[in-house]
What we know:
Elements lengths: L2 E7 L1 H4 L7 H12 L2 E8 L3 H14 L2 E5 L10 H8 L4 E3 L1 H13 L13 E3 L3 E3 L8 E6 L2 E6 L3 H19 L5 E10 L3 H8 L9 E7 L2 E10 L2 H5 L1
Parallel strand pairs: 1-2, 1-3, 3-8
Antiparallel strand pairs: 4-5, 6-7, 7-8, 9-11, 10-11
Helix pairs in contact: 2-6, 3-4
Amino acid sequence: MPTVEIITIGTELLLGDIQDTNSRFIAQKLKEYGYDLFRISTVGDNQDRISQLLREALQRSDILITTGGLGPTVDDPTREAVAQAFNLNLVFHEDLWEQITERFQIRGLAVSENNRKQAYIPENSFAIKNKYGTAPGFILPIKQKYVICLQGVPQEMEKLLLEEVIPFLLKTIPPAHFLFSKTLHAIGIGESVLDSMVGKYEKLSNPTVGLLAHAGMVDIRIVGSGTTREAAAL
Length: 234
């Protein structure tokens, strides 16, 4: 059963300057399509730290999905970090450069030489062309595992995840099971009291049952798994 980790990249995330909505979106879609998400990590714009985290994560999981760090500036080190982590060269792709240049022309902007950096991706990887922005993503196969690097801009990342990445995963490394989740809302009862009522179900392996407390309400989350969507929903 393929396992997934998400790595969000950006010092602005660690500083709390922006909220990480990418992980939530990816996690929801992974659940919908039957992939097990094991861990979510955040790392700043530091090439060495990103590289180390990539190596560690690939020892645990079959699929790594990163977001962020694919821009044209010095503090966008994802490409370099992936190349460093797996001892690869960065390779210039003329077709990516043409695409980047075209995107700027469509917007009536002059392309900077800095943007040329975005046309480099690690050797042995293949590009995820970005028709919504200038930064292409890429997928790097490593011994039947995959490092998938996507943009940090949510509007771009979300579209490419659905249009390119999910279809690729379903074809290349399909899930062994599907997940179906349902949430019940309990009002006027405390979490500890509710736990005493449903605790025996929280010990089940399938479906799994968990509680999440909110102000004035407690959610009961039930997640079933099965070899088909229909079986998971039973």
